[in-house]
Amino acid sequence: MDSLLFIFFFLLTPLALLLLMTMKRRRKRPLPPGPPGYPILGNMLMMDQLTHRGLMRLAEKYGGLLHLRLGFLHAVTVSTPEMARQVLQLHDNIFANRPATIAIKYLTYDRADMAFAHNGQFWSQMRKLCVMKLFSRKRAESWASVRDEVDRTLRSVASEPPLASVNIGELVFNLTKNITFRAAFGSQSHQEQDQFILILQEFSKLFGAFNVGDFIPWLRWLDMQGINKRLKRARVSLDSFIDRIIDDHMKNRKDPDAGDTDMVDDMLAFLDESPTRNAKEPADDLQASLKLTRNHIKAIIMDVMFGGTETVASAIEWTMAELMRSPSEMARVQQELAEVVGLDRKVHETDLEKLHYLKCAIKETLRLHPPIPLLLHETAEDCEVAGYFIPVRSRVMINVFAIGRDPASWTNPNSFKPSRFAPGGDAEGIDFKGNFFELLPFGSGRRSCPGMQLGLYALELAVAQLLHCFTWELPDEMKPSELDMGDVFGLTAPKAVRLCAVPTPRLTCSLL
Ligand code: HEM
């Protein structure tokens, strides 16, 4: 009896008090508004509405900060510039973690990459490595692969028979895939590239697969969909593929200052088993403190492949599609190209800075079609935003797509009007570097895109060359207004129907 009393007073009473205090605190600060859900399942039956477009519609009804319960998980969506400022600037240290599904944890070697690492020391060192070495401006400028691959794409278009329609979507996806593959691994055989694409495709399917265990943890062990077996197989294929490439690179070490290194070369200096790892010179702070394993290298390479391929490809395709749907805007961009570059040569990188209207058209495309429409973050602790309670480990979805079309921030938000960013336009001076919360295609703050410079370089050069070297007509006498502008939702939001168009050479010089 005595021991029962002891348990009651010394263990249960404090626990009950704690519970009461938490409930009292919670009652003062409600969760953000949201649609009602069912017991245990919460809003899981609304899964098909959790796309950028579905969430934008829900935000119109419930507001810029919206709460959903997905099984045992709290989810919050952010759909206005002001709410985005609150989570990405005011409370950025709380909102800078990343959520990860079972599949993502396994395929990133338990968050050994940068994109899925939680905000902390490891992530900040990885970020330094990426910003200073792997994705630096110097690398962008010396990225011969961008120039070479864009030229190769132009040659392939120029060699099409007259009046043949070109699938621009496929063309530019191949282009960006080749660019990132060469930047990551250097030149490899086509056979190796095809093998790697198969691995990437399986990773992509597994990243997007719905897994009940992510929402109801006690159902994890069941593996009803057989996902665990597929995850193991996918990782074994990646291991054997990249281990071979790392071994080859270790055998043929390159001078890091030679200027022709790829990302694997650059990361070898940080590999724990590397012979140069403990060399006396040069040992900057990062090299002394950051130790990478092969798993880190594999995980970072996957970040680059996923972060840098489809994003850039979909931005090129959307820019071309928006311009083809607005012939007067297309004419203005091509007129600028003719004046700045001249019709007797291709575009040089140094021309890009002078192509102001082309840049406006790209900015307007990124506003209407941000390649990553939902930014996924996770809270590191309980907090309060705009008077609402957001629990720790909530999944946060920042709806950049809805924000870019916010009627309170943009006039005619759904129209394609590049001139809004030009001198005298009502959005003049707004850029996408993360200071203007109404335009966030690259995010803002500590988790914003570290590959922005590289991405923009490939995007601007590809669009400029395609529009300068050719005029484009829609096939089969299709009218611009008939162009399908629907998108599909996944890790990115590319065009649902690939853009096809008929090119006619525009320059007096040969492209072949
Ligand atoms: C048009 C091109 C691109 C767009 C629109 C884009 C957009 C984004 C966005 C929106 C984020 C997430 C921001 C957040 O969660 O708050 C992101 C993160 C990231 N991007 Fe990009 N990106 C592009 C190109 C690239 C390229 C070329 C690379 C690599 C070479 C890259 C690598 C990454 C990585 C590694 C992250 C994760 C950063 C972190 O979690 O700390 N991206 N990008």
UniProtKB/TrEMBL annotation:
Alphabetical UniProt keywords: Heme, Iron, Membrane, Metal-binding, Monooxygenase, Oxidoreductase, Transmembrane, Transmembrane helix
Subcellular location: Membrane
Protein name: Ferulate 5-hydroxylase
InterPro entries, alphabetized: CYP450_84A, Cyt_P450, Cyt_P450_CS, Cyt_P450_E_grp-I, Cyt_P450_sf
Domain of life from the UniProt record: Eukaryota
Cofactor dependency: heme
Bilayer topology annotation: Single-pass membrane protein
Sequence similarity: Belongs to the cytochrome P450 family.
Xref: PANTHER family: CYTOCHROME P450 84A1-RELATED
Pfam families for the chain: p450
Entry GO terms, CC: membrane
GO molecular function: heme binding; iron ion binding; monooxygenase activity; oxidoreductase activity, acting on paired donors, with incorporation or reduction of molecular oxygen
Transmembrane segments: 6-23
Binding annotation for heme: 449
